[in-house]
Amino acid sequence: MILKDMILNTKLWGIAAAAMFLLMIGLGVAGQILASRLAADPDAYRHAGIIVKSAGLFLIFGLAACVAPLMVRAVLAFQVHIDNGQVPIIAFLLRHETDIVLAFWAVWILGGLAAAPAIVRGFVLGE
């Protein structure tokens, strides 16, 4: 029950999504500052780039994780608002809201794991 309450807490996920977004903006500013200061030292520039890119990927994945519960809750709340709450498929989805979010997360995690080698090679390391 605690897990269900946490997953369906839109205020929690909204605050977390906003925090991730603001951290992404801050990371972009920090990356620009580091780039200008480390341009003369190629090794330090490369290492700072790897750290900033890795942190950016972490924040993107975190933001995606925060969006799933908000998206599911918003779509189902809208369906209830337009009086579709009694339609069998919508009623089924309302009963399994937590499972839908967990399924989103599972698919995204599996996709991220499948793409991880290419992400590290191409995006983070720049090979």
Description:
The chain has helices at residues 2-7, 10-38, 42-81, 88-95, 97-124. It has 127 residues and is mainly α. The chain has one domain (2-124). Helix 3 (42-81) packs antiparallel against helix 5 (97-124). The chain is elongated and about 65 Å long. The mean pLDDT is 90.
In short:
The chain has 5 helices and no strands.
Mean pLDDT: 90
Low-confidence stretches: none
Note the overall shape: elongated
Please indicate the count of domains. Answer: 1
Helix count equals 5
Number of distinct beta strands: 0
Radius of gyration, whole Å: 19 Å
Helical content (DSSP H or I, runs of 4+): over 70%
Main β sheet profile:
none
Coarse structural class: mainly alpha
Q: Topology as H/E string?
A: HHHHH
Residue share in β-strands: under 5%
Main traits of this protein?
127 residues, elongated, mainly alpha
SSE layout:
Blueprint: H1 2-7, H2 10-38, H3 42-81, H4 88-95, H5 97-124
Helix pairs in contact: 2-3, 3-5
